[in-house]
Protein backbone atom coordinates (compact mmCIF):
# COMPACT_ATOMS: atom_id res chain seq x y z
CA UNK A 1 0.00 0.00 0.00
CA UNK A 2 1.28 3.51 -0.80
CA UNK A 3 2.81 5.21 2.21
CA UNK A 4 1.44 8.65 2.98
CA UNK A 5 3.30 11.73 4.19
CA UNK A 6 2.94 11.14 7.94
CA UNK A 7 3.54 14.82 8.64
CA UNK A 8 -0.05 15.46 7.57
CA UNK A 9 -1.18 13.42 10.57
CA UNK A 10 0.45 15.95 12.88
CA UNK A 11 -1.91 18.69 11.67
CA UNK A 12 -4.40 19.58 14.32
CA UNK A 13 -8.04 18.77 13.73
CA UNK A 14 -9.56 20.80 10.96
CA UNK A 15 -8.43 24.00 9.44
CA UNK A 16 -9.98 26.95 11.26
CA UNK A 17 -12.58 27.96 8.69
CA UNK A 18 -14.08 24.49 8.13
CA UNK A 19 -14.63 24.29 11.92
CA UNK A 20 -16.37 27.68 11.89
CA UNK A 21 -18.46 26.49 8.93
CA UNK A 22 -19.43 23.34 10.81
CA UNK A 23 -20.58 25.28 13.90
CA UNK A 24 -22.51 27.80 11.79
CA UNK A 25 -24.24 25.04 9.79
CA UNK A 26 -25.22 23.27 12.98
CA UNK A 27 -26.61 26.52 14.43
CA UNK A 28 -28.51 27.29 11.20
CA UNK A 29 -30.07 23.81 11.15
CA UNK A 30 -31.29 24.26 14.71
CA UNK A 31 -32.37 27.88 14.11
CA UNK A 32 -33.67 27.96 10.53
CA UNK A 33 -35.19 31.46 10.93
CA UNK A 34 -32.01 33.12 12.22
CA UNK A 35 -30.54 35.75 9.90
CA UNK A 36 -26.84 35.02 10.35
CA UNK A 37 -24.33 37.75 9.55
CA UNK A 38 -20.88 36.41 8.69
CA UNK A 39 -17.95 38.56 9.69
CA UNK A 40 -15.72 35.55 10.09
CA UNK A 41 -13.77 34.57 7.00
CA UNK A 42 -12.07 37.58 5.43
CA UNK A 43 -13.81 37.51 2.08
CA UNK A 44 -14.77 40.59 0.10
CA UNK A 45 -18.38 41.38 -0.76
CA UNK A 46 -18.16 44.29 -3.23
CA UNK A 47 -18.09 43.43 -6.94
CA UNK A 48 -15.03 44.06 -9.11
CA UNK A 49 -14.29 47.64 -10.12
CA UNK A 50 -15.71 48.69 -13.49
CA UNK A 51 -12.28 49.17 -15.10
CA UNK A 52 -11.21 45.75 -13.90
CA UNK A 53 -14.29 44.18 -15.47
CA UNK A 54 -13.69 46.05 -18.75
CA UNK A 55 -10.08 44.88 -18.91
CA UNK A 56 -11.11 41.35 -17.96
CA UNK A 57 -13.63 41.31 -20.86
CA UNK A 58 -11.06 42.71 -23.28
CA UNK A 59 -8.68 39.96 -22.19
CA UNK A 60 -11.32 37.33 -22.97
CA UNK A 61 -12.05 38.99 -26.35
CA UNK A 62 -8.33 38.84 -27.19
CA UNK A 63 -8.54 35.11 -26.60
CA UNK A 64 -11.43 34.90 -29.07
CA UNK A 65 -9.45 36.33 -32.02
CA UNK A 66 -6.81 34.51 -33.96
CA UNK A 67 -4.32 37.38 -34.03
CA UNK A 68 -4.46 38.12 -30.29
CA UNK A 69 -5.11 34.63 -28.92
CA UNK A 70 -2.68 33.53 -26.19
CA UNK A 71 -1.67 30.02 -25.24
CA UNK A 72 0.70 29.39 -22.34
CA UNK A 73 2.08 32.68 -21.12
CA UNK A 74 5.36 33.30 -19.31
CA UNK A 75 5.25 31.36 -16.02
CA UNK A 76 6.46 34.42 -14.12
CA UNK A 77 3.69 36.62 -15.53
CA UNK A 78 3.24 38.98 -18.47
CA UNK A 79 5.56 41.98 -18.66
CA UNK A 80 2.62 44.38 -18.78
CA UNK A 81 1.63 43.33 -15.24
CA UNK A 82 5.13 42.92 -13.82
CA UNK A 83 6.03 46.41 -15.08
CA UNK A 84 2.83 47.93 -13.69
CA UNK A 85 3.54 46.34 -10.30
CA UNK A 86 7.07 47.69 -10.13
CA UNK A 87 6.16 51.18 -11.35
CA UNK A 88 3.23 51.56 -8.99
CA UNK A 89 3.80 49.44 -5.90
CA UNK A 90 7.57 49.78 -5.62
CA UNK A 91 8.28 53.18 -7.20
CA UNK A 92 11.67 54.41 -6.05
CA UNK A 93 12.47 51.19 -4.18
CA UNK A 94 14.75 49.70 -6.84
CA UNK A 95 12.75 46.53 -7.51
CA UNK A 96 13.12 45.17 -11.06
CA UNK A 97 10.22 43.69 -13.01
CA UNK A 98 12.00 40.32 -13.25
CA UNK A 99 12.01 40.16 -9.44
CA UNK A 100 8.20 40.01 -9.49
CA UNK A 101 6.57 36.58 -9.88
CA UNK A 102 2.87 36.72 -10.74
CA UNK A 103 0.78 33.86 -9.40
CA UNK A 104 -2.77 32.79 -8.74
CA UNK A 105 -2.70 33.62 -5.04
CA UNK A 106 -0.69 34.54 -2.03
CA UNK A 107 -1.96 31.56 -0.10
CA UNK A 108 -0.12 29.28 -2.53
CA UNK A 109 2.98 31.49 -2.62
CA UNK A 110 3.29 31.92 1.14
CA UNK A 111 2.65 28.20 1.52
CA UNK A 112 4.98 27.05 -1.25
CA UNK A 113 7.94 29.28 -0.46
CA UNK A 114 9.14 27.06 2.40
CA UNK A 115 9.95 24.21 0.02
CA UNK A 116 13.01 25.93 -1.45
CA UNK A 117 14.56 26.01 2.04
CA UNK A 118 16.25 23.21 3.95
CA UNK A 119 14.07 20.90 5.99
CA UNK A 120 16.39 21.73 8.92
CA UNK A 121 15.58 25.44 8.75
CA UNK A 122 14.60 26.98 12.05
CA UNK A 123 11.35 28.83 11.47
CA UNK A 124 9.96 31.73 13.52
CA UNK A 125 6.28 32.60 13.19
CA UNK A 126 4.21 35.26 14.91
CA UNK A 127 1.48 33.85 17.10
CA UNK A 128 -1.38 34.37 16.23
CA UNK A 129 -0.81 34.11 12.48
CA UNK A 130 -2.41 33.37 9.14
CA UNK A 131 -2.59 29.55 9.55
CA UNK A 132 -0.84 28.77 6.25
CA UNK A 133 2.63 29.61 7.62
CA UNK A 134 2.53 27.01 10.40
CA UNK A 135 0.58 24.30 8.59
CA UNK A 136 2.78 24.25 5.48
CA UNK A 137 5.89 23.86 7.64
CA UNK A 138 4.20 21.02 9.50
CA UNK A 139 3.28 19.31 6.21
CA UNK A 140 6.87 19.64 5.02
CA UNK A 141 8.15 17.88 8.14
CA UNK A 142 9.90 20.83 9.71
CA UNK A 143 8.19 20.27 13.07
CA UNK A 144 7.50 17.63 15.64
CA UNK A 145 4.05 16.79 16.90
CA UNK A 146 1.65 19.36 18.32
CA UNK A 147 1.69 19.58 22.10
CA UNK A 148 -1.23 20.20 24.45
CA UNK A 149 -1.05 23.96 24.11
CA UNK A 150 -1.50 23.64 20.34
CA UNK A 151 2.06 24.58 19.38
CA UNK A 152 4.39 22.41 17.32
CA UNK A 153 7.81 21.39 18.54
CA UNK A 154 10.49 22.96 16.43
CA UNK A 155 8.70 26.21 15.55
CA UNK A 156 9.77 29.38 17.32
CA UNK A 157 6.54 31.16 18.21
CA UNK A 158 6.62 34.93 18.62
CA UNK A 159 3.60 35.92 20.73
CA UNK A 160 1.63 39.00 19.76
CA UNK A 161 -0.41 40.53 22.55
CA UNK A 162 -1.42 43.82 24.09
CA UNK A 163 1.73 43.97 26.20
CA UNK A 164 4.02 44.07 23.16
CA UNK A 165 1.55 46.10 21.11
CA UNK A 166 1.13 43.09 18.81
CA UNK A 167 4.63 43.47 17.42
CA UNK A 168 6.82 40.34 17.41
CA UNK A 169 9.92 40.42 19.57
CA UNK A 170 13.28 39.17 18.31
CA UNK A 171 13.80 35.48 19.11
CA UNK A 172 16.49 34.69 21.65
CA UNK A 173 17.96 32.04 19.38
CA UNK A 174 19.11 32.43 15.80
CA UNK A 175 16.45 31.46 13.25
CA UNK A 176 16.63 30.93 9.48
CA UNK A 177 13.16 31.92 8.28
CA UNK A 178 10.95 34.60 9.81
CA UNK A 179 7.31 35.07 8.84
CA UNK A 180 6.11 38.63 9.37
CA UNK A 181 2.72 39.96 8.34
CA UNK A 182 1.95 43.68 8.35
CA UNK A 183 -0.81 44.84 8.26
CA UNK A 184 -1.44 41.75 10.25
CA UNK A 185 -4.03 39.11 9.81
CA UNK A 186 -5.61 38.48 12.32
CA UNK A 187 -4.69 41.35 14.68
CA UNK A 188 -5.19 44.19 12.19
CA UNK A 189 -2.09 45.87 13.65
CA UNK A 190 0.97 47.08 11.75
CA UNK A 191 4.71 47.17 12.32
CA UNK A 192 6.42 50.54 12.39
CA UNK A 193 9.42 51.53 10.33
CA UNK A 194 11.75 51.21 13.33
CA UNK A 195 10.34 47.79 14.25
CA UNK A 196 10.86 46.56 10.71
CA UNK A 197 14.36 48.01 10.71
CA UNK A 198 15.14 45.99 13.85
CA UNK A 199 14.03 42.85 12.00
CA UNK A 200 16.03 43.64 8.88
CA UNK A 201 19.12 44.24 11.04
CA UNK A 202 18.52 40.97 12.89
CA UNK A 203 18.05 39.06 9.62
CA UNK A 204 21.24 40.46 8.17
CA UNK A 205 23.23 39.67 11.32
CA UNK A 206 21.88 36.12 11.51
CA UNK A 207 21.76 35.37 7.76
CA UNK A 208 18.01 34.81 8.09
CA UNK A 209 15.37 35.44 5.47
CA UNK A 210 12.21 37.41 6.26
CA UNK A 211 9.04 36.22 4.54
CA UNK A 212 7.02 39.43 4.60
CA UNK A 213 3.31 39.16 3.89
CA UNK A 214 1.76 42.48 2.99
CA UNK A 215 -1.48 41.21 1.49
CA UNK A 216 -3.29 44.09 3.24
CA UNK A 217 -0.94 47.01 2.46
CA UNK A 218 -3.62 48.84 0.48
CA UNK A 219 -5.64 49.26 3.69
CA UNK A 220 -2.97 51.34 5.44
CA UNK A 221 -4.41 54.78 6.23
CA UNK A 222 -1.73 56.22 8.51
CA UNK A 223 1.05 58.07 6.72
CA UNK A 224 4.20 56.67 8.26
CA UNK A 225 3.33 52.98 8.25
CA UNK A 226 5.58 51.11 5.79
CA UNK A 227 3.73 49.35 2.97
CA UNK A 228 6.68 47.32 1.80
CA UNK A 229 9.63 45.78 3.62
CA UNK A 230 11.80 47.20 0.84
CA UNK A 231 11.22 50.67 2.28
CA UNK A 232 13.73 49.54 4.90
CA UNK A 233 17.35 49.84 3.88
CA UNK A 234 19.05 46.49 3.43
CA UNK A 235 15.79 44.52 3.06
CA UNK A 236 16.62 43.40 -0.47
CA UNK A 237 19.46 41.36 1.05
CA UNK A 238 17.19 39.50 3.43
CA UNK A 239 13.49 39.60 2.49
CA UNK A 240 10.86 38.17 0.19
CA UNK A 241 7.52 39.99 -0.04
CA UNK A 242 4.06 38.60 -0.79
CA UNK A 243 1.22 40.73 -2.12
CA UNK A 244 -2.23 39.84 -3.30
CA UNK A 245 -4.96 41.45 -5.39
CA UNK A 246 -7.55 39.48 -3.40
CA UNK A 247 -8.50 41.98 -0.74
CA UNK A 248 -7.11 45.07 -2.49
CA UNK A 249 -9.20 44.69 -5.62
CA UNK A 250 -11.80 42.06 -4.78
CA UNK A 251 -9.91 39.24 -6.53
CA UNK A 252 -10.65 36.47 -4.01
CA UNK A 253 -12.66 34.66 -6.69
CA UNK A 254 -10.55 35.84 -9.63
CA UNK A 255 -7.16 34.77 -8.23
CA UNK A 256 -4.07 36.87 -8.79
CA UNK A 257 -1.14 37.77 -6.55
CA UNK A 258 2.60 38.21 -6.74
CA UNK A 259 5.80 37.52 -4.86
CA UNK A 260 8.90 39.70 -4.96
CA UNK A 261 12.24 37.90 -4.72
CA UNK A 262 15.22 40.25 -5.06
CA UNK A 263 18.06 38.92 -7.22
CA UNK A 264 20.63 39.80 -4.57
CA UNK A 265 18.97 37.57 -1.95
CA UNK A 266 21.20 34.60 -1.16
CA UNK A 267 20.91 31.33 0.71
CA UNK A 268 23.48 28.65 1.35
CA UNK A 269 23.74 25.06 0.08
CA UNK A 270 24.73 22.23 2.43
CA UNK A 271 28.23 22.46 1.00
CA UNK A 272 28.42 26.12 2.00
CA UNK A 273 28.00 27.59 -1.48
CA UNK A 274 25.99 30.83 -1.86
CA UNK A 275 22.89 30.21 -3.95
CA UNK A 276 20.49 32.77 -5.43
CA UNK A 277 17.03 32.44 -3.88
CA UNK A 278 15.61 34.16 -6.97
CA UNK A 279 16.94 31.39 -9.22
CA UNK A 280 15.53 28.69 -6.92
CA UNK A 281 12.10 30.29 -6.76
CA UNK A 282 12.17 30.80 -10.52
CA UNK A 283 12.98 27.11 -10.98
CA UNK A 284 10.20 26.06 -8.62
CA UNK A 285 7.67 28.43 -10.14
CA UNK A 286 8.42 27.29 -13.72
CA UNK A 287 8.37 23.62 -12.79
CA UNK A 288 5.14 23.64 -10.80
CA UNK A 289 3.14 26.58 -12.17
CA UNK A 290 2.07 27.49 -15.70
CA UNK A 291 1.20 31.12 -15.21
CA UNK A 292 -1.91 33.00 -14.15
CA UNK A 293 -4.47 33.29 -16.93
CA UNK A 294 -4.07 36.11 -19.45
CA UNK A 295 -7.50 37.76 -18.91
CA UNK A 296 -6.91 37.68 -15.14
CA UNK A 297 -3.56 39.42 -15.52
CA UNK A 298 -5.19 41.99 -17.83
CA UNK A 299 -7.83 42.56 -15.14
CA UNK A 300 -5.15 42.93 -12.45
CA UNK A 301 -3.17 45.44 -14.53
CA UNK A 302 -6.31 47.61 -14.78
CA UNK A 303 -6.14 48.47 -11.09
CA UNK A 304 -3.04 50.53 -11.89
CA UNK A 305 -4.86 52.74 -14.42
CA UNK A 306 -6.04 56.14 -13.16
CA UNK A 307 -9.68 55.04 -13.15
CA UNK A 308 -8.81 51.66 -11.69
CA UNK A 309 -6.89 53.22 -8.81
CA UNK A 310 -9.77 55.53 -7.94
CA UNK A 311 -12.30 52.69 -8.09
CA UNK A 312 -10.15 50.44 -5.93
CA UNK A 313 -9.64 53.26 -3.43
CA UNK A 314 -13.41 53.66 -3.15
CA UNK A 315 -13.79 49.99 -2.25
CA UNK A 316 -10.95 50.07 0.24
CA UNK A 317 -12.47 53.16 1.90
CA UNK A 318 -15.84 51.44 2.07
CA UNK A 319 -14.34 48.55 4.05
CA UNK A 320 -12.26 50.88 6.23
CA UNK A 321 -15.40 52.85 7.08
CA UNK A 322 -16.92 49.53 8.21
CA UNK A 323 -13.82 48.87 10.30
CA UNK A 324 -14.23 52.26 11.97
CA UNK A 325 -17.89 51.57 12.77
CA UNK A 326 -17.00 48.19 14.32
CA UNK A 327 -14.12 49.65 16.29
CA UNK A 328 -16.10 52.54 17.70
CA UNK A 329 -19.13 50.48 18.63
CA UNK A 330 -17.06 47.85 20.41
CA UNK A 331 -15.03 50.46 22.28
CA UNK A 332 -18.24 52.17 23.39
CA UNK A 333 -19.45 48.82 24.65
CA UNK A 334 -16.32 48.62 26.77
CA UNK A 335 -14.25 46.10 24.82
CA UNK A 336 -10.52 46.56 24.40
CA UNK A 337 -10.20 46.91 20.66
CA UNK A 338 -7.15 46.76 18.39
CA UNK A 339 -6.51 47.01 14.66
CA UNK A 340 -9.06 48.29 12.18
CA UNK A 341 -7.13 51.50 11.44
CA UNK A 342 -4.65 50.21 8.85
CA UNK A 343 -6.32 46.87 8.18
CA UNK A 344 -9.83 45.55 7.55
CA UNK A 345 -9.74 43.46 10.74
CA UNK A 346 -10.74 44.45 14.26
CA UNK A 347 -9.20 42.38 17.05
CA UNK A 348 -10.94 42.51 20.37
CA UNK A 349 -10.17 41.13 23.77
CA UNK A 350 -12.89 38.71 24.76
CA UNK A 351 -14.56 39.10 28.16
CA UNK A 352 -13.91 35.45 28.96
CA UNK A 353 -10.55 33.90 28.06
CA UNK A 354 -12.17 31.21 25.91
CA UNK A 355 -12.44 32.62 22.39
CA UNK A 356 -14.46 29.67 21.01
CA UNK A 357 -16.86 30.30 23.91
CA UNK A 358 -17.17 33.92 22.77
CA UNK A 359 -17.72 32.67 19.20
CA UNK A 360 -20.63 30.54 20.41
CA UNK A 361 -22.19 33.29 22.52
CA UNK A 362 -21.93 35.84 19.68
CA UNK A 363 -23.54 33.34 17.31
CA UNK A 364 -26.26 32.38 19.79
CA UNK A 365 -27.15 35.82 21.12
CA UNK A 366 -26.51 38.04 18.07
CA UNK A 367 -26.43 35.60 15.14
CA UNK A 368 -23.09 37.12 14.17
CA UNK A 369 -20.12 35.02 13.09
CA UNK A 370 -16.58 36.10 13.87
CA UNK A 371 -13.30 34.25 14.19
CA UNK A 372 -11.97 32.99 17.53
CA UNK A 373 -8.42 34.13 18.13
CA UNK A 374 -7.38 30.65 19.30
CA UNK A 375 -7.86 29.44 15.72
CA UNK A 376 -4.86 31.53 14.69
CA UNK A 377 -2.51 30.13 17.33
CA UNK A 378 -2.34 29.74 21.11
CA UNK A 379 -1.53 33.40 21.76
CA UNK A 380 -4.75 34.30 19.93
CA UNK A 381 -6.68 32.80 22.83
CA UNK A 382 -8.61 35.51 24.65
CA UNK A 383 -9.02 37.55 21.45
CA UNK A 384 -11.51 37.57 18.63
CA UNK A 385 -11.43 38.83 15.02
CA UNK A 386 -14.23 40.68 13.31
CA UNK A 387 -13.81 41.31 9.61
CA UNK A 388 -14.83 44.61 8.00
CA UNK A 389 -15.52 42.80 4.73
CA UNK A 390 -19.29 43.07 4.83
CA UNK A 391 -21.93 45.33 3.38
CA UNK A 392 -22.55 48.54 5.31
CA UNK A 393 -26.05 47.31 6.06
CA UNK A 394 -24.86 43.99 7.48
CA UNK A 395 -22.18 45.69 9.55
CA UNK A 396 -24.63 48.13 11.06
CA UNK A 397 -27.16 45.38 11.81
CA UNK A 398 -24.43 43.25 13.39
CA UNK A 399 -23.22 46.16 15.49
CA UNK A 400 -26.74 47.00 16.60
CA UNK A 401 -27.25 43.41 17.72
CA UNK A 402 -23.94 43.42 19.59
CA UNK A 403 -24.87 46.74 21.26
CA UNK A 404 -28.17 45.36 22.45
CA UNK A 405 -27.69 41.66 22.74
CA UNK A 406 -24.22 40.93 24.00
CA UNK A 407 -23.15 41.33 27.57
CA UNK A 408 -19.84 43.25 27.59
N1 LIG B 1 -1.88 36.41 3.30
C1 LIG B 1 -2.73 36.77 4.24
C2 LIG B 1 -2.19 37.39 5.48
C3 LIG B 1 -4.09 36.57 4.10
O1 LIG B 1 -4.94 36.92 5.07
C4 LIG B 1 -4.58 35.97 2.92
C5 LIG B 1 -6.01 35.69 2.72
O2 LIG B 1 -6.83 35.73 3.57
C6 LIG B 1 -3.66 35.59 1.97
C7 LIG B 1 -2.33 35.82 2.18
C8 LIG B 1 -4.12 34.84 0.75
O3 LIG B 1 -4.46 35.60 -0.31
P1 LIG B 1 -4.86 34.99 -1.69
O4 LIG B 1 -6.32 35.15 -1.83
O5 LIG B 1 -4.06 35.80 -2.68
O6 LIG B 1 -4.46 33.55 -1.77
Can you walk through the features of this model?
- By secondary structure, the chain is α/β, with parallel strands linked by helices.
- It has two domains: 9-47 and 309-405, Aspartate Aminotransferase, domain 1; 52-306, Aspartate Aminotransferase, domain 2, CATH 3.40.640.
- 36% of the residues lie in helices and 14% in strands.
- It is built from twelve helices and 15 strands.
- It has a seven-stranded mixed sheet, with helices on both faces. The chain has a four-stranded antiparallel sheet with strand order 11-12-15-14, covered by helices on one side. Strands 1-13 form a two-stranded parallel sheet.
- It is globular.
- The protein binds pyridoxal-5'-phosphate (PLP).
- Pyridoxal-5'-phosphate binds at residues 42, 105-107, 110, 130, 181, 185, 213, 215, 244, 246, 252, 257.
Using the CA coordinates, give the radius of gyration.
21 Å
Q: Largest sheet at a glance? A: 7 strands, mixed
Q: What is the annotated CATH architecture of the largest domain?
A: 3-Layer(aba) Sandwich
Compute the number of strand runs: 15
Secondary structure class reads alpha/beta
CATH level 4 superfamily of the largest domain: Type I PLP-dependent aspartate aminotransferase-like (Major domain)
Mean pLDDT: 96
What would the keywords be for this entry?
seven-stranded mixed beta sheet; binds pyridoxal-5'-phosphate; four-stranded antiparallel beta sheet; 408 residues; alpha/beta; 15 strands; Aspartate Aminotransferase, domain 2
